[in-house]
Amino acid sequence: MVAAASRKTVKKHRDDRALRSSSVVQWEKKMSNNCATALLVYTMMQIFFVLSFIETKGMSIAPYFGLVLLVAVIVPFCRKYEKRWQDIANSGLSEQSLAARFRRDQVTLWILALGLPFVFVAIIKIIGAIF
Prior knowledge:
Elements: H1 2-23, H2 27-54, H3 62-89, H4 95-130
Helix pairs in contact: 2-3, 2-4, 3-4
């Protein structure tokens, strides 16, 4: 009888803990997923979109090195974002405050991921027109 009661208590405790952990938003994990997805989209846009614009006659290999450089620069940026969100998530801020910061950072991340390839194409086109 005592064993059955303690098993019910343990089961109830586990259920309560699972319910609490499932209802809490893991902001750092959400930002990590956003960074990974944005990095993939950014890299794919660099490969397919940007390469189609810079493949012209008379162009040097410099734009290709620029592509490699831009992809290499964005990786540490995304890692810093993830690290920042690990710190913010553990800071004890309210859920509303975290949600507002998350949305702002998420929008910034995606604007950069989607906008930088277009900026790079514009720079290459300007340089190509000058020289």
